[in-house]
Design a protein that fits this description.
Layout: E1 6-9, H1 17-25, H2 28-31, E2 37-41, H3 43-52, E3 59-62, E4 77-81, H4 98-115, E5 119-122, H5 127-130, H6 138-145, E6 153-157, E7 162-165, H7 172-175, H8 181-199, E8 205-208, H9 222-236, E9 241-245, H10 253-256, E10 261-264, H11 267-278, E11 283-287, E12 292-296, H12 313-322
Parallel strand pairs: 1-2, 1-5, 2-4, 3-4, 5-12, 7-10, 8-9, 8-10
Antiparallel strand pairs: 6-11, 11-12
Helix pairs in contact: 8-9
Length: about 325
Amino acid sequence: MKNKPIIIIAGEPYSIFFEIFFKSLKKKTIKNIKNPFLIIGSKKLLIKQMKILKYKFKIEELNLNSLNSSKLNNKKINIINVNFSHKKTFDKITSKSNSYIKECCDIALKTLKKTSSKVLINGPISKKNFLKNKYPGMTEYFASKVGKKDQEVMLIFNKKLSVSPITTHFPLKKIFNKIKVKKIVKNTITLNNFYLKYFSKRPEFGITGLNPHCESSEKYSEETEIITPAIKILRRKKINISGPYPSDTIFLKKNLKRFDVVIGMYHDQVLTPLKTIYGFDAINITLGLPFLRITPDHGPNMSMLGKNKSNPESLINTLEFAKKIK
């Protein structure tokens, strides 16, 4: 990605994003990234938070229509300003920010096309307020925006172990009808291609069952009718996958070294144990889009606003991974 900018949506205005961004810019590994960062967000809010949190960075305001990415660098914070009417620097998260966040997302998608950048990072966004049940999550929101609905694949990436749920931000009562052989096969192939492209390796996949202990007292068993047939298809395609494994044992220490990715049937089945093991030392990557969407693995964390105590580790990992994308 020769000097193509890393597009960053600032996200929810009343979140810790600017704080952890300022902290990240101080890290030596981030200073050495050649690809320029391009923020999409409120310049006024950035300046106010920077002063209150006592950081000093020069700022370069840019215009999308006249943007020349070849002239960008990280000597200043590059920003395309999106007006946000705010009376307070720190406030509660409400739906009043919705139009601002939507405009940030729209401008970011236009900037991706204009610069031919292949990576989009977005700061935390309150799904409850912004999406209002129109989309299950931001993963599905961006997929719909770029015409890739149902093609999106969520990967929570950690160098030691990553996880990927077959269903994403859906209530438990809705996931059963969404687990299909075709879906498991498609997702796994997308994941496999990602590891081949960016790590030159064929990953080892372990896949969980859906029912406790991979057993069902009912006549119909998802393990027998869906998951096992999908595994057989994937193995014929020379993909390294085994299972299904009970989700209550696959994350035992003796098993963790066996796999690069654990594929689960639903969101919390695999995200809960991963966060228990690694905390926020992970990044959320959306595959299946014309670009890679990456986001730090944490939320707005409104309770920590203005305290300057938030951990930037996940954003640092996100920015360091972004530089690898070509």
